[in-house]
């Protein structure tokens, strides 16, 4: 296949445009606020908090009162449950992606797996339309499956990057993908907000349907552009077992790439911090920021839109910076800023302080994700097993997210304050920064040491 084909690259980039709506509308913006509202209403009803007209009044919930939900007969904090369900989904992704990537590489079927998980995630998002706190187990199953669909699809999507572009173009194309993702997701978010604010909050559920339709619809552009079976592999019977053996062979090769291993170790820590902040920021802001009466949701949405705009800009800036000073140095600067952000989050209380912090998050969020992906792609050895190699990247990411979200939930559980959870995430960035110092610019620098 011809590398650098503009039509194929445009098609690849469009999947970022298609699937990023999950990350914004479901993970960050509308669904977490909807989830918080629904669980608070159910909790207030269970406590008999009623206003003068006999209607449920969530305002009667005290400032530091923990909103509890019943999940399979166990009572726990609504935010703790949310973080635990996400942790469980990432654990499943960590198990599935290496096994399936080996099969995908052996059979040349990355595109089929990409489609399957795209559709799983899309339909799971649409099923959130029926979310009901009285049947919380079913609602959290939708959250669980949507997360699996989104994150597993990225393994096979990312694996196309080294196949469609030359190494020197990876930073630019990866950043372009993230920028398109921010712009696309922001576009749908604005549409959803127009429906909610213009027609009524009761139409919030339709946002989840729109996410699924958008994701499926625009991904068709990607499917038409991306090639099938790039290396013309012809699988034989027993391809699942042979795919597993393929993964083992790749793992043996991987162990020889010392620079790649060192980079993955650093990536494990700093990306754990990035993803944990992204997943739990809305829950934190909804709980801890003192919003003016009746403006909490709109204030959060403004902050999230600000992050999206600056995220697209940050991805572009970081790709330019990396071309001047190199990927590792660029990541070093980004991770240092993340440490300051986490420590600063412990002290913020007002909307203005939150907006300042959100602006900082936006500028480094897009950049660190785009450069982290392209750096890994650049460090790969010559191979046809890109899905298997990217599964190691994905497993590293997901195990980190499992650890991060679990740690976040446990910190709140132990301390009784979500502020300590946010501040503690800084430790992941500190370790990531330390390990980045030991990643050499070239593999041969390591070989010269032995």
What does this structure look like?
- This protein is mainly alpha-helical and 450 residues long.
- The protein has one domain (6-46, 76-447): Growth Hormone, Chain: A (Up-down Bundle).
- It is 77% helix and 2% strand.
- It contains 17 helices and 2 strands.
- Strands 1-2 form a two-stranded antiparallel ribbon.
- α10 (258-288) packs parallel to α14 and α14 (386-415) crosses α15.
- The two termini are 37 Å apart.
- The model is unreliable at 444-450 (pLDDT under 50).
Percent range for β-strand residues: under 5%
Count of spatially separate domains: 1
- Poorly predicted runs: 444-450
User: Could you tell me the mean pLDDT?
Assistant: 83
- The helicity comes to over 70%
From the alpha carbons, calculate the radius of gyration and give it in angstroms.
Answer: 22 Å
Which structural category fits the helices and strands?
Answer: mainly alpha
Overall shape: it is: globular
